Amino acid sequence: MPAMSSELNASKFASWEQAVQWLRGQPDQRELVLAAYYDDPLPDAAERYRQSEEWAAIRLLLPETRGRALDVGAGRGIASYALAHEGYQVTALEPDASALVGADAIRSLAVHSRLPIEVTQEFSETLPFPDHSFDLVFARAVLHHTRDLSAACGEFFRVLKPGGRLLAVREHVISHAEDLGAFLQNHPLHHLYGGEHAFQLAQYEGAIRAAGFLMEQTLGPLESAVNFAPRSLKALQFEIANRVTRGLFGADAIVAAAIGVPAIWSLVRPALTRLDNRPGRLYSFVANRTPE
6-221+278-288: which CATH number, 3.30.70.660, 3.40.50.150, 3.40.50.10490, 3.40.50.2300? Predict the structure, then answer.
């Protein structure tokens, strides 16, 4: 991971739990708290995630056959909860012990929901599981946090069964190494505790392929609700129209209506993706371990 300046490393709190507790106490941050599913009660937040457009899009990427799933960097357990509802036996991997945003929160959610979720406190780079243990490795906003991206991808490959799938979703991407500083400065949460990071697209795809995976699909920031949620597609299109027209009165609505036509959207979206150089834009990856 590239070295960061002391200014970019500056943070207000000694733990992520403290940071989230503070965030939840700020009335003007309510929308961000809800978007990050940091609100209580936790079972309600988890169910809201399961009913979200993001999860509906992720569901389409899941293998047809259910089995054992490893939810890496599980946080509060919202994805573990959703995976268990899909029929998976879930192991939630979360190194933080926190009762608010870590392993203890997942344990309480599992007890409350009576879902098959076990919790393991460990990091992605050192998975304490035998080879070929899981049918699915799911990682939501995890790869950009890893201390060693290649090692983590290697571990994901090792613990997957032949024919298993890796879903790594909502990963921050930068176009150039020098964009990292701008991304960190503009990130709404990095100043609270630190820990955020971003890689170039080729670094993600290279690490996944080098681990032995076959890349099935790379989803761009405008391609799926997996990446642009919690915004709706219509809201995303209006935001793009507003940016293109620079807020010119009336023109943004006309452009939004035009690109909202499915046939037109399918034509312009690839070009818009190529032009999108926002530091930290989100990509998702679908990769498979080949059957042996």
Answer: 3.40.50.150
